[in-house]
Write a structure and sequence with these properties.
two-stranded antiparallel ribbon, four-stranded antiparallel sheet, Alpha-Beta Plaits, 99 residues, single chain
Length: 99
């Protein structure tokens, strides 16, 4: 399994994820496609210095797309990726989300 910085690729900040971390300390990350829940837990705890209470993962499937920008209606494809939804211990927070 990759190192901590390669396990967690980037945070996902959307309206839905913002509402989740403001109300319930639930954070969303894009993670390595082969990362297991214990590896994700270890990486978040090591990188941000928090205590993780729960990890849920979702494999987001690839999507077909068509766009004029690809040239005369050629089809394209977005790649599949993995999302991790992480719940923290009460009182912990991750500063990159908080501002």
């Amino acid at each position: 399994m990759p190192a901590y910085t390669r396990t967690v690729i980037k945070p996902i900040v959307t309206e839905k994820s913002s509402a989740a971390y403001e109300s319930a300390k639930i954070y969303t990350f894009r993670v390595h496609p082969h990362a297991a829940k214990p590896a994700i837990r270890d990486a978040i705890e090591h990188l941000f210095g928090v205590t993780v209470t729960a990890v849920r993962t979702i494999n987001v499937r690839a999507k077909e797309r068509r766009a004029g920008g690809l040239g005369r209606g050629r089809a394209g494809r977005r790649s599949a990726w993995k999302k991790a939804i992480v719940t923290l211990k009460e009182g912990d927070a991750i500063q990159i989300f908080e501002g």
